[in-house]
Every structure is written in structure tokens, then in C-alpha cells.
């Protein structure tokens, strides 16, 4: 490993301790490294503007950072155990190539604001992806609602057949929900879109750093002004991002639960493309909807990571090493969440309903609510209508799913899905 | 207990089962009941607009709902074990007084959308309170930052004395953080501000309910269109609200941790008003900062409630009775969170710094970073500057906290706190 | 409220602060009060043994504590907002009746060890109940396994029909699982069965308290020796108890999920007694398995409480007021968990299988695994056997569920359930 | 990648889906692979005993499994992305080398019981390590208590100086706590020590598998009889193990919090060896107790993993693919927990107290409790003694820490630490 910048000469190191300190940092930092490089460029340019580094030094630093970025993209450079973490790798790269000028990059910044700014850029990109994936899921669901608005299916409460519903209602429900999720991600993006670079170790620095410049250069919407606030946001912003991810994955989980039921032999409402299924190692007859089950289970990853992060944040203000433990769960959960979300639109698009099975699952008793409400609307008190309805199965005979759906005229109901309203909100999400 | 609307005559009930089913619903519903009454008025007006109830019936229902609201306010009516829940209480009240007309109120709605709309109105009010309390905490912190911008205090990392900081930096950090929290609450308010009333049991209803009217009447920003989406939002919206609460309480927790340390005999940086302290039952010498400790512990209540809610949401779409278990933790956590937040501004305002103790805690070694950066800015490579600085304690002698702070000229640093920028953002929060 | 023992005369109190400090303590302490009284008796007897109180004082204290216990049982005394908490109530009761002698009871103890010992006695009783309820559930399941060992039912993996199973296998699976849970509770009972009384505020006391006597008098298996350890166990023991509760409720949750599926119209495998069902307020046709759903949801209560408790325990050693926040979630979760468990045995006993539906759900493809393994046992490599089996649906024709089950001769399989082995372990649980 | 055993020829695969399905399985399985090989040997021997494989086949399989184990130990074989998971790797290895005989190994087992048995063996080893590490921490703490029983230090409640304590009390507190943790691990080991091999996909198998033999061969204390129970224990056992880990890490967290405070400039009670500290990248003056902070933060990893696992277990009985998501958090948390625990004994051994600082931190007011109790013991009612004591600071003058400790004669107190009792319990832990 390269020398540790902070290492005192009189320190005896212990392999177990060093391993414990290092953790998975270099692996985790692979995702952050490009952002760290980008922020390093901005920091160098900022230092140049206040004359801490010369024109030549800036040009050299920028050139070598670009080279490093290329080397990462090509796979020529891999962040690994040779380095303590991504920050050390950048410094080592520059110092090896540029000597003194390479060392200058660290002037006026601390690893505290360096990791904050790299993580912030990362969070912004991921939130943006989350928003787009939620929009994409919502759009797919909405399109299916448009094309299958009037296919009857049973509506369940308590997993018991309740009233007639339609695939249009089912799809539009998920469309509207994923729009909410997209909006949550969009709004949160505005909150976290702030530049912590220049806050140093959490108390500012005795240099007139040009933070306005780095804010613009890194395309942040605003500066995170207070260095103390920058430290307070560590982990807190990650938790907010995971909160947005949880909203989306909560909908994925219920969607996957529906599919898990709907693909049983007992329901058999829907066919999912074979690519989402696996076989069994012992049972030749099986085709298992593994992907559906893993989509369902994905929420747990985010939930666990959230608890992991928030458990570490019971701390006084200022940087504490505990905060480094927010990195692993945040990155792991965000990656997992997006890997989950990216599968959803295609899966939605690929579902094939068994329309006759859906229809056959609609029993006469499911018209009883219709009947009770009709009578209530005619003036029979609902409670009495309700009790009467229970008895008159004869009155249910002529009814069809179509008639039931056609009468569902309340806004959002099968006869008035208001898909245009949903679409209008989607356009803003 | 009053008759259960849904009870079949052939059902044998068991006391343990009934108790298990009821849970704490009537207690919890005390907070929701006023919202349920308000939504019931809107629903009645909506039914009147589509001629399901007459002018006279509407007038009578509105009158009796108003009477009930008054009786609740005066303490004359208490929701208790006589009722299954708040919904039943309203229906019983109306039916007793109005007979058939009282029963009409239930036409076209289900307890599913009834609880949703009451909870939604409740969530809106609480989010609004949260936002205001965050604004209030931020404002208090900002005011203190303005008045105490240049009192030196030690800045810590790893709980070790690191560099000179100032009370101005400390206060402005919490100000900026609570502004974030206020904005999170504000944005979320826009997301949840949607009307689920009229979605019935989750599949709409065979009546042309005037949902635009109830949306306006209840002062919702928009209709939650899809009945399926309304069900999907149950618990999910509550989780989002708890997420906003957690952001605020995460800052409270770190603030309380600071105070818990700062009030030890060892630090003795700050005095908190006696009203936040208690004595000991066995140790006459003690004055304990109990309120600080409970503020610190409050995050846990929200964290636990979040896990409780999200654990129940692993379900297919549509209403399941499990969802009722989202009510208890949501109400308990929201109430607790607000009871916590409401104490923060006054506590902030009441803190008294021991300025000389703060100053005495600043050791010469805390100027070493200043020195290293000065040298780095003069052209010594930071790494070398860093190593050199470790040795020259002589160069640290003449330095003062004031000089150190005056040089902290990066935006957000002690010499350029940018409180105006922070205030400008506060105005929008 | 009665005077606060610790109150300084110069303290101005604020209603919001007092309410925040009090929390729900008096409500929560209703469950702990009998244990607090019992421990107070033991403490008084201990003080008497070291001559801190006289014969007469002891007799009077014991008499009045007995009177209080009777008053609580009869409902004559109710712990309410007049008191700060249960400890204050006991002291007030004794002091009112006995004057000076009543005050003596507090000699040599702190509220810190007082709440610890009352909670410890409570935890022991609840763990014991948990163990018994797990045994009872296991016994019921085992009895049903004995009587229905050979009713065929489909065995699922991935919710897909996989191979033939039997009700005997299903019941014996839950029996063996609940035995594990009982053993976990039993073993944990031995760990927590230790007496913290006499550790005062966490650092012992300058009296020769007869802790051996109180240990025996309160029927503890051992003394918790170290006062520091006593404080470290606060919350930690509660978490361990919730861990045992979670093991049991994890099984309840999967059991309830099975029933939730098995009672759908699509599966219709089982009938649950009507007492576990409710109707719908809007849909007259519904009979909803609400109790099943709430049993399923109960795990969440324990999970949330665990996170709530563990989140508060991020503290230095010694008592901190945060620890008081472990009481609410612990009591709430334990009560809820036991209220859940108590329903399980009767529910198990009341289930009625639809045997023909179970049988009809067994499809020929479910014999393919049998066939593949037969061939593999005859020497065809399993992989080849597996591939061949997929094609020969003709070879599956003559097979019956009974033949499939009869061949399941591995221990634990349908043909060798080993219920005696399971019963033998139950006897020790 | 090798062929997938379960793959249907008509399945189109998608890279994103395959990656999502694979997850980190091959990385995770590196820890499980040696156990999988060991269990495979036992399974082969079991198949041989029922004549499914011949003497020669068994010999060949055992030989090749041994070779594989050697290749893994030497680093010659690395489980990587060429394989779907560890199970596939074993089968591929055998089939390549042994052809048909290699395929036989899969007869009568499923990946469901294969992963269960490998994980079970892994859990046993890890629990055993946990127990030993708790014993080791307890022993170190106990030894220090013996040697430093009477060094005075302040005892804190609410982080406020409360009464005199001693390093002996502090160490013995942690000793007794870690003994509890060791016992929890020990008892749990007995619960999980059961053999799931032979339960196939969760419904047994149509072969007379010699499960008694595999149980003995793998050194399990008993057979997990029911295949349904085996599936129900998936994740549940992992949660129990994490529960035991949490008990230990809860103590580590409070221990680390103490050290984090005790190493501040303000307390300066203790010196930790330099090997547990790091420097700062920006502040040359810093020596930061990073290891202490990471020890403190480690609890969060286990807490997060527990929530992650339990969130996935909301499922019907039988295998579901969701269960695979229990592997990652379980392995990650267990490894992290043990990596944490392994540092504790040496850290304990290396602490150096600043005895004079400890002593100087003891203020006269800390004798007030002693005084109040003395007076109470002399007959002054405690409440009055308490109030009087507050005033008589004169009576506190002559007191010393030694006198205060010498009077702490209650068992467990400084004058009667009962280290022999604690040691006796340690011997059984």
C-alpha cells in the first residue's frame, strides 16, 4: 500500500487493525472515483483562481486527471488494495507523474469534504436515474392501462375476491404510484443539489477558496454554505435518498407480490416472459418466477441499509470515523435499488394476461356491492341495502363484469380512469 | 360495543380475538376523529350534489357532525371502548340522532377510503407543523449565529480538538440543516396533498361521486385519481412523512449529543436552563440534563415506527388488514417527533455559553492546520507543509483564536459565514 | 402530581417539558407496578436484615405494600397522571400511611435498580409465557400431524406447485419450528434470571445490602453481580427477549401467510372458523380473514420495537435517561407478541382442510421429481435422469399422491415423519 | 459460465436479468464453499450406504472433493464468475473429472438443502468463534479488574459526575456483560446444531437417505427432522445468530463510547495504543481514535443486516427465491461482527489509565450520596437525609475516594467486587 498521509512514524501497525480500518473502501470507491476526479479538477481550477497553483500546474493536473479517467474507463487502472482509498489513489497518481504540483491538489481540502463532494455528485446522478426509471415504469404502466382499460379482473381485499376490477384500473394504479415516486426523487434532487467542496474538515479553511466557481463548475444548484452543515448532512442525505428509493421499491414489492400470486397455478392470471424464470435443480417440472421474487425481496436491501446508516448517526456534530460506515450501505443499496428498478419497465411490458381466467374468477357474489349501492342510491339506507343485498343472489344473475365496470363512474373508477390526468402529472414528474 | 356493521349473525366471537382485532384503534382514532368528521361533511355534501341525499338530510347531517365536533372539543364526547373505531362512532352518532338519514352517510364510501382521507388530512397538518417547527429551529439558530458569530470555540473531529471554530459556525450549521429539513417537509406536503375520498374499497364505486367537489371542499391540491393507487399509498405516504421527520430528528439527535457533551463537567461549555434538568432520587448532588437525553433518544421512536410500518407493507396490492397496523406507529411517531421538535427552538434560545471555558479549550496545536495551509499557499507542497507543521510548535505561539477565525475566509467559514444566504433560503423553506 | 423527589426548589417547570419528560410512564408502569411492589418487599426485608429498618417498620411496610397490591387488583387503586411513575406511587402510598417508616424504603436503592429489578421480574414472567405458548402451539401442531399424517397436499416452492406433500409434513414442520422457539425462550430465561436489585445507581452503595437474600426472596437464579453490568444489561436484555419473540413470530408470520393464501378462492384449501373473520362495511359478500392478517402483521411490531430499543443504546456505560425509552417499545412489543401467540394454538386446532381440493391441486407433473430420482437411483446420472424425466409424461400416468408419499422414506419425509423424535424434543422444550 | 442445471432450452436470457439473478453469490459462496464440500462428502457417503453410488464412485468423489479443497486452500482454485454459485462449481469440478460418477452427487439433494447444510456448518463455526471471543474479552476485562480493582475513577450517570467508582468496577462490569454474551452464543449453538441435509427441496425425497449417518459425519448434535421446518429455519436461524452477535456488539458499542469520551482532551482518562489511531489528512496535530469509532459503529452493520433478513422473511412456508437474499447480509454481518470482536481483547489489554486525571475528576459533591445514605442508615429518613445532604458540603471535606470505595460493601460494589463469582461463571460460558 502507498504511504498513508496521516501516518505517524512511531505507529506500530497491526494487520487485523489495518484491515479493519480499510474495510471495503477501495472496492466501494470504484463507484465514487470518477466523481472524485471530477471534483478534483474543479478544486484545482478553484485553487488556480486564487493563485495557489500556477497555470502550468493546473494544466498538468487537469491533463493527468483526464488520463486517469481514461485509464479507469479502459480498465487499465483498477482501484485496488494497493491504495487506502480513492482519495489516496488520485494523490498517488498525480504525485508520481507531477511531483510537487501533484501534491498541491490537496491544499485547502480535507478528505472530509472530498468524500462529501464525490458522494454528492454520485447521489445526484443516482437520484436522477431513479427519477427516470420511475417515470419509465409509470409510462409503461400507463400505456398498458390505455390499451387494456376494459379487461375485467377480480378486485381483491384481504386477498378475498371483492368486486369487479379491470386491468385498466390495476395498471393505472401502478402508473400513478410510480409518478409519486418520480416526484419524490425529483424534489429530493433539488434538496441535495448543493456543493460541500471547500468546507474542509468541517470548519472551513484559511484560504479564500472560490466556492462559487467550484459550485458552477460541478453544476451544483447551490453552495452548501456551512461547513458544520456539510458534516451534518453526511449520512442524512444518503438516508433521504434511500427514503426515495424505498418509496419506489415499496411499489415494486407490491407489484411483485401481485405477480407472484398471479403466476401460481391457482390464480394463473398472467404469464411472465421465460427470461424472468428459472428451473429447479431437483424438480424437472418447475418454472420458477425467480426474478419476481427477487424484485419483491429488493426492498429489504434498502430497508437494511437505511437502518445501518441511521444507526451510525447517533453522534455529536463534526466528523467522526463512524460516518465512513455510511458509505457501504448507501452505495450497496442504491446500486441494488437501481438494478431492481431497471428491470421493471420491460417486465411490465412483457406481461401477458390470461383474460379468460381473469373473467372466470369473477363470481356473482362480487356484484353484491354494486347492488347494495344501487339500492342505497335509490333511497334504501345503506345499512339496510347492505343487509338486503346479502340475501338476494337472484338479483345478481343477469349482471356481467362489463356492466359492473361501466357503472364505476366515480373519477378513477373503471368507467372514468382519467388517464389523461395521470399522464399530465407524469409529464411534470 | 355498538353493533359491528360487517358482523354476520352466525359468527361466534371470542373476547381475546375481539380484543386483538380492536387493538388500540379507538385510542388512536381520537387524533383522527376530527379529520374523519370533516371528511364526512365533505362526503355528505358530495352525495347531496349527486342527489343521493336531500337538502334536508344534508343540513341535518352537517348539523349533527358539527355538534359532534363541538362535543369532542368540549370533552363531552370521548371516543372509547364503546365503539369499534372512529368510523363506527360517527355512524352511531348520526344514526341515533337522524335515523335513516344518518345511515346514508356511508353510501358510496368504504372504511378504506374513509381512513385514508382522515389520515391524509392528518398527515398534511402534521407535515405543516413539522415544516414550521424546522423553520422555527432554523430561525432561532440563525439569530444566535448573527449575535454570536465570533465567539471562539474548539472544533472537533473524532471528538478530538482539531481546529478553532466559533459559535457562529456552530449555530449557522444547525440553521442550514434545519432549513433542509423544512424544505423536505414542504416538498413532501405537495406530494401527499391529494384526495383519496371516493375511491371506496380500492376499486371505485358505481356512483358518479363528485370527487372534484370533495377535493376542493377538503382543500386538497389534487385528486388521488386511481383507487388502486390510493391503496398503494397507504403506509407508503406515512413512511415518507416519517422520513421527513427523521431528517429533522437526525439533526436534533446530533444537536442533543453536542449538548450532552458540552454540559459534562469535563467540557462545561454551556449551561442549559434548569427547566430542562432533573435531579436524582439517590444522589443529591446531581443536576441531570434529562430533556437533552430524551431529545437525543427521540430519533429511535421514529426509526422503530418506520421499520414497523415498512415491515407490514410486504403485501399484494389492494387493502389487507395488515395495513391497519400502519396507523399506530405512524401516529405515535409523528406525535412524538413533533413533541420533540416543539422543544428545540426555546432550548436553543436558552443556552448560555461559558465563553472563557470555550476559549481555554483552544490549544496551540489547533493552529497547526492554519500554519500548514499558509505554507502550502506560499508554495510549499501540502504534504511537506503538513509534515513540517508538525514540528514547529514555535511558529504557533503568537496565534490567537481571533486570528485563526479571521483567516477562515472561504465562504461558510468563520470570516464569511454568509448568514444572508442562509436567511434567504430560510425565507423559502 | 406528587412532589418530585429530585426536584430542586429553584427549578421553573414548563408544561410541555414536563409532559415530554413524563411520556407514557404511568401507563406503562401499570404492568410493572406489581413487580415493583414485590421487589420493594424484598428490598425492605433486606434492609431489615441489615438493621436499617426495625421489625415494626418492616411489618408495616409489608402490610401496606400488600394493601396496595390488593387495591391494584381490585381496581381501587389506579396508577395515573397524579404520579410521576410507579416508583413515586409506591413511595407516596407508604409515606402517606407510614410517615417516616415509609420513606425508609428508598434507603440504599435508586430508581435505576428499582426499574431494573421490576423489569427483570416482568421479563422473566413474559419469557415463561412465551415458552409455554410456543410449547402449546407445537403440541397442537404435533397432534394434528399425528391425526392427519397422510392427507396429500401440494408442496410449493416459489409458490409454484412442486411435489406432493402432506398435511402431516406441514404440521410437523410448524411443530418442530415452534419447539425451537420454545427452547430459545427457555435458554434465554436462564440468562436473564439474575437480580440487579442492590446495584443502586450503577456503582453500588455504601451499605452491606443483603443481596443474597433479595435474590432468594425474588426467586432469581443468581445475582447480577456488577452494578456496571446491571446498567449495561438495560435494553440489551429486552432486545434479547424481543429476539426470542421474533423467532416465534417469524413462524407465526409464515403460518399466517400460508393461511392467507390457503383461504383465497383460488386455493380454497382450508376453512378457518368464522370467529377469526370479519365482514366488510361496503361489500356484503365478504368474509375476511382479518385475524390471520393481523397475526401476519404482528412480526412488524416486534421488529419496530427492536430497532427502537437498539437505536437508543448507542451510549456510554452508566445510566442515561435515553434508556428510559427502552421501556415503552419493550412492553408494547412483548404484550403484542403474547397477545398474538395466545391465539395460535386454538386457531391451529380449528382449521378444517378441504381434502378434495388439496388432492385436486396435485398435478401429474408433480411426480416428475419422483421419477427422476427413481431413475437416478437406478443408475441414470441425475442430470440425465432429470432431463429425461422432463419428457416422459407418459411414465407419470399411473402415479398417485399416496404412492408418492409412501416413497418419501427419508427421515422427516411423509413416510417417516419421526413424530416421536419431535415429541421427545418437545418434552424438553 | 457453465451450463445452468435448471435451464430450459427455450429460455432467452437477458444480461441484466442474469446479473440480477446472480447477485454476489459467487463472492459470498467463497466462505461457504469449504462447508459445501464437506457436506458433499457426507452426502456422497450417505448415498453409498444406500447403494446409490458404488465403492469406486465414492472413493473417486471423495478424492476429487479433497483435491478441490486443497486447490481452494492453496489459491489454485478461485470461485468466480465462471460459475453460477458454489454448488455449480462443485458439480462442474466433479463432472469434469469423473463424468457420470460426478453427476451422481446431486442425487437426492436439492440446492435448497445443500445451501442449508453449508450455511448451518458455517453458522456453527462462527457462533463458536463468537463465544470464544466473548470469553476472551471477558477474561481480559476480568484480569484487569483483578489488577486494578481499587483505582478510583468518577462514576457517571447522565454523563454527569455522580459518585466515586473504580476501574475495578468498570472492568468487572464489562467482564460480566461479555460472559452473558458468551452464554447466549453457547446456548444458541445448541439450538442451531441440527442437520438439514436430506430434506431436499423442502418435502423430503423418495430415497431412504441415511440422515443419521450424515448427521454423525458432519458432527451435528441432532437431525433437523422436518423438511418443512428446515425451510422455516432459513433466515430465522441467521437472525438468531445475529441476535447473539448484537448482544456482544451492544457491549462493544458502549465500551467504545466510553473510550471515545475517555480519550478526549476534556476527559483524558485513558491512553489507547497508537496502533488504534490514525492521523488526519489536513490537520497535522491530530491523533484520532479511528478504531474505537469503528468498533462503536459496528453494531449498525449487524442491525442493518438483521432488518434486511427479517424483511425478506414475510413469506409463505416453503422455499422462495427471496430467501437467497438472507445470505448476503448474514455473511457480511457475521464476518464484520467477528472482525470487530477479535480486536477487543487486545485493545482492552492495551489501555493505559491516567490515574491522577481519574482521581482529579472526583469532586467533593460526589460524596453527597455516601453521606445521605450514612445518615439514612442511622435513622434519618432517606428523603430528609437526601435534602439535608445537599446543604452540608462541610461534612464532605475529609472524605477521600478510597474511603468512599471502602464503604461500598454491597456485593458487586467496589469493596466486594466478587470477582471469584464472576470468574466461576466465566468458566462455564
In short:
Four copies of one chain form a homotetramer. Chain A is mainly α.
Describe the structure.
Chain A is mainly α and 429 residues long. Chain A is 61% helix and 5% strand. Chain A has helices at 15-22, 25-49, 55-74, 86-98, 100-104, 111-147, 167-192, 211-217, 227-233, 236-262, 290-312, 327-341, 344-350, 355-360, 368-377, 382-389, 401-406, 419-428, and strands spanning 152-157, 160-166, 194-195, 222-223, 270-271, 352-353. A two-stranded antiparallel ribbon of chain A has the order 1-2. A two-stranded parallel sheet of chain A has the order 3-4. In chain A, strands 5-6 form a two-stranded antiparallel ribbon. In chain A, helix 8 (211-217) links the parallel strand 3 (194-195) and strand 4 (222-223). In chain A, helix 6 packs parallel to helix 10 (236-262), helix 6 (111-147) runs parallel beside helix 12 and helix 11 (290-312) packs antiparallel against helix 12 (327-341). The first copy, chain A, is elongated, with a radius of gyration of 28 Å. Chains in contact: A-B, A-C, A-D, B-C, B-D, C-D.
Amino acid at each position: 500500500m502507498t504511504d498513508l498521509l496521516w501516518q505517524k512514524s512511531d505507529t506500530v501497525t497491526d494487520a487485523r487493525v489495518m484491515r479493519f480500518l480499510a474495510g471495503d473502501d477501495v472496492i466501494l470507491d470504484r463507484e465514487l472515483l470518477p466523481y472524485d476526479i471530477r471534483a478534483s479538477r474543479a478544486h484545482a481550477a478553484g485553487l488556480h483562481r486564487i493563485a495557489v497553483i500556477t497555470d502550468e500546474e493546473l494544466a498538468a493536473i487537469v491533463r493527468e486527471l483526464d488520463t486517469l479517467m481514461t485509464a479507469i474507463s479502459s480498465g487499465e487502472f483498477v482501484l485496488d488494495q494497493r491504495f487506502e482509498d480513492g482519495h489516496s489513489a488520485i494523490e498517488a497518481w498525480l504525485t508520481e507523474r507531477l511531483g510537487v504540483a501533484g501534491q498541491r491538489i490537496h491544499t485547502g481540502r480535507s478528505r472530509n469534504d472530498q468524500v462529501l463532494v464525490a458522494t454528492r455528485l454520485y447521489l445526484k446522478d443516482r437520484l436522477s436515474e431513479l427519477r427516470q426509471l420511475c417515470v419509465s415504469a409509470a409510462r409503461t404502466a400507463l400505456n398498458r392501462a390505455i390499451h387494456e382499460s376494459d379487461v375485467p379482473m377480480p378486485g381483491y381485499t384481504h386477498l378475498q375476491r371483492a368486486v369487479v376490477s379491470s386491468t385498466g384500473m390495476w395498471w393505472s394504479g401502478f402508473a400513478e404510484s410510480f409518478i409519486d415516486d418520480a416526484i419524490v426523487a425529483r424534489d429530493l434532487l433539488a434538496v441535495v443539489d448543493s456543493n460541500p467542496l471547500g468546507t474542509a474538515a468541517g470548519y472551513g479553511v484559511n484560504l479564500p477558496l472560490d466556492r462559487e466557481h467550484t459550485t458552477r463548475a460541478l453544476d451544483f444548484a447551490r453552495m452548501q454554505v456551512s461547513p458544520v452543515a456539510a458534516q451534518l448532512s453526511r449520512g442524512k442525505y444518503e438516508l433521504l435518498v434511500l427514503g426515495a428509493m424505498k418509496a419506489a421499491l415499496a411499489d415494486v414489492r407490491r407489484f411483485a407480490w401481485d405477480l407472484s400470486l398471479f403466476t401460481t397455478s391457482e390464480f394463473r392470471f398472467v404469464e411472465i416472459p421465460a427470461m424472468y424464470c428459472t428451473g429447479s435443480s431437483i424438480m424437472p417440472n418447475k418454472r420458477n418466477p425467480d426474478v419476481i421474487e427477487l424484485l419483491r425481496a429488493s426492498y429489504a436491501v434498502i430497508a437494511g441499509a437505511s437502518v445501518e446508516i441511521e444507526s451510525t448517526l447517533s453522534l455529536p456534530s463534526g466528523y467522526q470515523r463512524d460516518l465512513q460506515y455510511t458509505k457501504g450501505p448507501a452505495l450497496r443499496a442504491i446500486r441494488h435499488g437501481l438494478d431492481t428498478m431497471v428491470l421493471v419497465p420491460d417486465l411490465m411490458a412483457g406481461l401477458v394476461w390470461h383474460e379468460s381466467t381473469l373473467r372466470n374468477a369473477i363470481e356473482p357474489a362480487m356484484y353484491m356491492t354494486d347492488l347494495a349501492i344501487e339500492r342505497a342510491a335509490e333511497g334504501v339506507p345503506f345499512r339496510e341495502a347492505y343487509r338486503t343485498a346479502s340475501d338476494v343472489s337472484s338479483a345478481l344473475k343477469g349482471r356481467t363484469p362489463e356492466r359492473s365496470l361501466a357503472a364505476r363512474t366515480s373519477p378513477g373508477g373503471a368507467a372514468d380512469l382519467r388517464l389523461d390526468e395521470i399522464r399530465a402529472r407524469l409529464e411534470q414528474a
